[in-house]
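Re: duplicated header lines in exported structure tokens

Our pipeline writes sequence and tokens for each protein into one text file. With two proteins the header for the second block appears twice in some exports. Here is an export where it did not happen, for reference. First protein block:
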Amino acid sequence: MQDALAEYGPAVTEPEEFVEDGGVIRIGPDWKRDNDVTFMRLLMTAAHADEAEIATWSDEQCQQADVWAIAASLNASDNDDIVVPPMPAHVRWPAH
């Protein structure tokens, strides 16, 4: 089973692993930029940025989008204690 899963690359960190006390989402020191993961997280929120656009973002912009998307997704899933920061200006709403 491990060999079969290995072909898909490393496991994606579960969003709950980013939650700190008080419901604040923080990106840890192990964060690695992954434009595909950022794209998918944004899709889960109905926000929009296409893959080519995400590729032009700085690492800081990707982290901001990740934090916002994780928080918005968790908060929408009956986790009212999750603090959702303002949507970053470089993320568009709603998706087109």
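Second protein block, exported in the same file:
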Amino acid sequence: MRALSAPVRLFRLFTHTVNARIITHLGIAAHGVSQMLRAIRLFSLLLLGTGTVLYSPQAAAQALNPTGLEEWDSTNQVLFFVNGHPGSPIRAYTDYNQRGSDIDVLKDFPGAQAAYVDSVTAGPDGSTLIAVTLDFGNRNIRDLILTYDSSAQLLKTWDPAPQYIEAIVYSKDDDAVFVLGGLDLPPGPYAPNYPLLIEYSRDGRALKAMAPASLLRDREYSFNLRSQNGQPLLRVTKERIYFYAPTNHEVVMCDRDGIVLAYRSFSESIERISTEDGYHLVQTHQTDFAENGDLVSELLLWNDENNTSMAEVIRLSMSTGEAVSVHKNSNSRLRFVGMKDDQYLYLAGSKNLYIQSSAAQERVPLDTK
């Protein structure tokens, strides 16, 4: 097990209060704080209809059976449910079809008191790759990448140290795993400009280092403020790699060799669109990338004068930096999950899926026939 002796890692453990790797002075993983804030996100959305007639979508014939908070694997178009109450398994769906068996990580690690999923992605042949933080108590933690087959049997375990994980994605085009995150390095000549993105083989062998930390305004700290500005995000397509760093709403676009093709911070665009009509931004909820690299975000807005809230899905152009509204409402229980192909995917009551095309305002039940 990795010792918590590196100064950089200890700094992360005791100061970044919404990072999954923090342990508080009580020995409780502060990952719970992050998950609590995500739960507040869901509760906030439910409050949008307070005092009004709530939009009640027609019940779909099919329904999901969630086990935790949703995590959308945009690259592979799979919806996961993770980090539910203690003992809840990881469950995955492709549309309404459950993908593989439920995964119980703790059963494979005797002595672990808790397992926190930092990121999850769909692998080949029905397998699942999970970036997990295991808490064994007494400040003894392990950060691992686990591979499970479709029957939930643990196949492979590897440690990505010195890289810590913000997001993980499997790409079938390379049969490789892409990991986004900083490096836990002592001060030295390499420390200032380490890679933020590393491509690994499925067995954990580093293949390619990409995207130097100097690309981002606040370097490794650019992945903080996730409770306010959304989660770090990584999407890999056949020709491009996109990642989102929430602190300054930064997006980087690379080619498959890691050459940076574009960079943009959307902070000003989000500020402009979120302050229209007397509203202001409370929180950025889910984010995802469209097929062309545009960033799509759901914003929770509040109007102090009217004491009203509103959820607005916006699309931010990677080419121009401009923000356009996709959908806004103050009385809906539907929340944005991600981009399904180039359609907007929503979840109603954690059970029913709805889609909205780029050309329409109406959201309709997902038809899987």
